[in-house]
Amino acid sequence: MTAAALGALWSHWRRNPLQLFTLIAGLALATALWSGVQAVNTEARASYDAAAATLGEGQFDQLLAADGGSIPQSTFISLRRSGWLVGPVTEGQVGPPGARIRLVGLDPLTAPGGLGPVGGGDDVDLADFLDSRPVFANAETAAKLEGLLDAPLKVVPDIAPDTAITDIFVAQRLLEMPDTLSRLIVAPNQPLGRPALSQVAPELVLRPAQGGSDVGRLTDSFHLNLTAFGLLSFAVGIFIVHGAIGLAFEQRRGMVRTLRALGMPLRRLILLMATELLVLAVAGGTVGVLLGYVIAATLLPDVAATLEGLYGARVSGTLQLRPAWWLSGLAIAVLGTAAASAGALLGIARMPLLASARPRAWAVARGGARRMQIAAAALLLLGAAVLAAFGEGLLMGFGLLACLLIGAALALPPVLDALLAAAARPAKGVVAQWFWADTRQQVPGLSLALMALLLAMAANVGVSTMVSSFRLTFVGFLDQRLASELYVNTTDAAEAQALQAFVAPRTREVLPLLSADTELAGMPAELYGARIGATYRENWALLAKAPDVWSRVAQGQAVLVNEQLARRAGLWVGDTLALGGGTVLPIAGVFGDYGNPIGQAIVGEDLFRSLRPEVTALRFGLRTDTPEDLRAALTADLGLPASAITDQAQIKAFSLDVFERTFTATGALNVLTLAVAGFAIFMSLLTLAALRVPQLAPAWALGLTRRTLGRLELVRAVVLAVLTTLCALPLGLALAWVLLAIVNVEAFGWRLPMFLFPSDYLKLAGFALVAALLAAALPARRMARTPPSDLLKVFANER
């Protein structure tokens, strides 16, 4: 009996291969986008973990120079002799510009916890590290280092990308940093009775361990955004699956009745149907994982460039087949299929034996589904409003997005029904009245595909608004920050002094770039010293400011802070900020600092030099009306190398390139999501085309030609797409507001102004209409070419 039931169930798919393709394709597309995003995130996190495991980043307390510079090797010796268990680290960059490799030198005898490659693999031991003193790197990095270093190379797979590790003395030689250290790693277990750090090395500061990778936590918001896009794309694909499963179950009503009447136990029948769906889910999920690998491999280089440009995080540009992401892809395919089929299976389980073949019984089984859907939509939208008004935190922001998008999707069918009813009222002719009534009748069958289109359109409107707003703000921010026409680097204090004397009569302003790493309001931050003049007064726009802000900062009476520091520390204009050394100043202004992950404060040049006398300005911004002439004079008369001079356009072009690559991944996901939505409409129209024949045959018999019917089918798809687009626009703008005003603030610490781009929305609406036309073209063509004999057969059937 079981074998016969399986054969009967499978016969449905043999007779309806298009439905089988729709189901598997929907699962594959949904899983592909999800697993592709997960593969990118997993690869990035693996790179973070590799860096943390080999370099101790975030795992151990570290000692750093208070002025942000280097540490003499004698300081390390003093600490060891006084009982401090610390391990030295020297690091720097090697390789040509644009392909720099991070070279890290460790002392394996003093590094805590077996850091570095020693102990990280069977092919590396302490003797190898100390005797031949090779440079360890993964295969990709080792290939880049071939011929660049005067040291042997050894490949160790687990080392972070674009990072090489060697013995500290080798690193000091290769980096030309003799007797110089970058930082000291503090062992977790220290001897009792050791002297305080202030007694042995007062010039050092202790940075506490963060319990993991600092970079991993810093980029959490970026990965959370990608995951949200993956889930949205998966939801759009699951709409396709839900529609295909629902149609298949409805078409097999008679089969279910017959099997049960022949003695098939209800529990076994449901188990067999669930097993059938499980097999299809695994098949579709497998195809989706393979497609996800291709998507991830395509997106990963741009994501790696984004993470390095925004956060300084090195991520491997090659993809590995890791169980974490492909298993999650298969798992979510199975769970999505279970969710999509749960309602249909439950409907079969609750219906009487002979009722399952009657269409009315299925309608009754769905009973109050529409009322429940409207109630759920109202509750979700109300929940979104409550979260927007009172919620806090990044997870709250994504919870708000989920409530908003799901609630709007559930509300779409009743909203479309109301809009179509309103459009039908002025209709006078018989054909027009029939068209609007028939269109309303089509909404339930197309509701899932239209929900998918709504979500895809809203995501495109929201993200394009966010990105375009960010672009406008970012360009203005670059114009503000890059006001100087030329930027010049010097090598030492003497050269810096000579430069200032040389350019003084040739420029309008000379702006030294003074900065030091510090801690402000209990958080890592940067302190800048600014020479306040016309450049700052005329070019810098502040988000909030006190009266006479620039004069107070120039006189050392006030401080400016960036938005990140202000929001994270709960400070604003009028509050005070401790700058160290007993100096506490009021905050006179808050400035936007887009793209910077940490806090920043600006004080006047004189105050900065008194707070940090050890910091010497070696980089300068030059304001001039003749940048090319000044560049030529700097190279010809002062003898500076051309590489030491950078013009504003070069820096701006580089920054904008990083910006564009930053949003490549999200832009690609938007396009893929819209493509999946178009596929959902196409498959819905195609699978419902056969069911439409009995509904259209009477209209044909009453005088409408087949060509007219096909044309009306095409118009119907366009009307539904237009109405869905009109609903998607306000939803997309609401999504953009949530991203800019809530999610962005919680994730990055800054709020972006929101701009509207009507021309972009019109283009997007055009794309949606084209997608709807293409999706409806084949079903409409089929209708226009339906043989009259097929239409006549309708009147011979019991229907």
How far apart lie the N and C ends? 31 Å
The number of helical runs is 27
Strand % is 5-15%
Specify the structural class: alpha+beta
Main beta-sheet strand count, sense and barrel state: 7 strands, mixed
pLDDT average, as an integer? 79
Shape summary: elongated
Question: Radius of gyration, rounded?
Answer: 33 Å
| Unreliable residue runs | 211-218, 359-365
Secondary structure: helix percent = 55-70%
Write down how many β-strands occur, each being a DSSP E stretch of 2 or more residues.
21
What does this structure look like?
With 799 residues, the chain is of the alpha+beta class. Helices cover 62% and strands 13% of the residues. It has 27 helices and 21 strands. The strands form five sheets. Strands 13, 14, 15, 16, 17, 18 and 19 form a seven-stranded mixed β-sheet that branches. Strand 13 (514-520) and strand 14 (523-530) form a beta hairpin. Helix 2 (17-55) packs antiparallel against helix 12 (323-350), helix 9 packs parallel to helix 24 and helix 14 packs across helix 15 (394-424). The two termini are 31 Å apart. Residues 211-218 and 359-365 have low confidence and may be disordered.
Topology, pairings included?
Blueprint: H1 2-15, H2 17-55, E1 62-65, E2 71-72, H3 73-81, E3 86-94, E4 101-106, H4 126-131, E5 135-137, H5 139-145, E6 153-155, E7 163-167, H6 168-174, E8 180-181, E9 183-186, H7 197-200, E10 204-207, H8 214-218, H9 220-251, H10 253-261, H11 266-311, H12 323-350, H13 359-366, H14 369-390, H15 394-424, H16 430-481, E11 486-489, H17 493-503, E12 509-512, E13 514-520, E14 523-530, H18 534-539, E15 542-545, H19 549-554, E16 559-562, H20 563-569, E17 576-580, E18 583-591, E19 599-604, H21 605-611, E20 619-623, H22 627-636, E21 645-647, H23 648-662, H24 664-701, H25 706-748, H26 758-784, H27 788-796
Parallel strand pairs: 4-7, 5-6, 14-19, 16-18
Antiparallel strand pairs: 1-9, 1-10, 2-8, 3-4, 3-9, 11-20, 11-21, 12-20, 13-14, 15-18, 16-19, 17-18
Helix pairs in contact: 1-11, 2-9, 2-11, 2-12, 2-24, 9-12, 9-16, 9-24, 11-12, 11-23, 14-15, 15-16, 15-25, 16-23, 16-24, 16-25, 16-26, 24-26, 24-27, 25-26
